Amino acid sequence: MNFVRYLYYSHLWGSGPRKTIAMKILIVDDERAIRNSLKEILSDEGYEVEVAEDGAKAIEMVDKEKYNVIFCDIKMPGMDGTEVLDKLVSDGVDSAIVMISGHGDIETAVECIKKGAFDFIQKPLDLNRILITIKNASERTTIVAENRTLKKKVYGQKMVGESEPIRHIKDIISKVAPTDARVLITGPNGSGKELVARSLHEQSTRSAMPYIEVNCAAIPSELIESELFGHEKGAFTSAIKQHKGKFEQADHGTLFLDEIGDMSLAAQAKVLRILQEKKLSRVGSDKDITVDVRVVAATNKNLKAEIEKGNFREDLYHRLSVIVIQVPSLDERKDDIPLLVDHFVKQISTEGGMPPKAFSADAIARLQEMSWTGNIRELRNVVERLMILGGNPVSGKDVADYVSPVQ
Length: 407
Fold this sequence. Notes:
By secondary structure, the chain is an alpha/beta fold. Helix content is about 45%, strand content about 15%. The protein has three domains: about 5-150, Response regulator (Rossmann fold, 3-Layer(aba) Sandwich); about 155-330, P-loop containing nucleotide triphosphate hydrolases (Rossmann fold); about 330-400, Orthogonal Bundle (Helicase, Ruva Protein, domain 3). The strands form three sheets. It has a five-stranded parallel beta sheet with strand order 2-1-3-4-5, with helices on both faces. Helix 15 packs across helix 17 (about 395-400).
């Protein structure tokens, strides 16, 4: 029984009540009979279905439309299915990509999944198998959406601003994020270095994998190695069970090492080894564990000066600083203060249950005249203070009364 007839009879056998399902599906196959039959049957099931006869056409369509599920044949002339998969994954497409092939084997399936495919189905296709895959893809879409909402709640704010320095940083992020290049973020305290790191992760091909943040300055030097690399049970007095370190927790994702300038030289040596060999060993073990982690680091220190003092390894610096992003102080981007004030008013109102307040032009002008040694973090605190103590709208006099020249 050929594929079209097989799928047709499967369709008849599985017939049932139809319902409208808010999902958009793209079928990519060079055989017209297959793609048209699959389109007709899935349309009958209530899905919105479009077709593409080759890989190039599929890429063009995905650039213009958003699809929940993409069924893509592997063996096609010109751009084959694996090339389509590579392109869509590298572009950060959210669709669940299902590879289909009449020449499938376990090795091919595993390779496709490793590359980022959601599923792999062999021909001849079974309608029930297809519908189950679509159902699972729908659940995945819901989970991804919930994950993004959770990230917004956990991460809090986003990068806000349209000044030239911020536009420059956003442009660098858009170019660097899809790669695995290591990034060193520099800038003063409170300037938003962690937001740059999060943006790099969220715009990367690793965005669905863990994002682990470590403040190196907040961990005692005697515990930093256990925290980063993990430890075995009994490795030291309080090691009552095995512990996976931050590098293992971030496997296939991104590890953000904040304040890396405060890391001990011993820990620096181990981090260097991981960057070189992609292997680590837990404290109390000599067994190597392979990890695939993108490392993004940040510091408010001048690492070149720290190298001169013998406090930071020069070889580690060069490993970390493939790309260097300098985050400007708020004093260097005062044009962004109106946008930042508006953003913080909405954020504080939502999180704290306070009614939002307007800020007068005079209040904004006075805020722009100030020197912001605490940067973005300081501005947020001032906005919250003015929302509590100031009038509505917040006036220039409120700024003068409630914000001291030296914060």
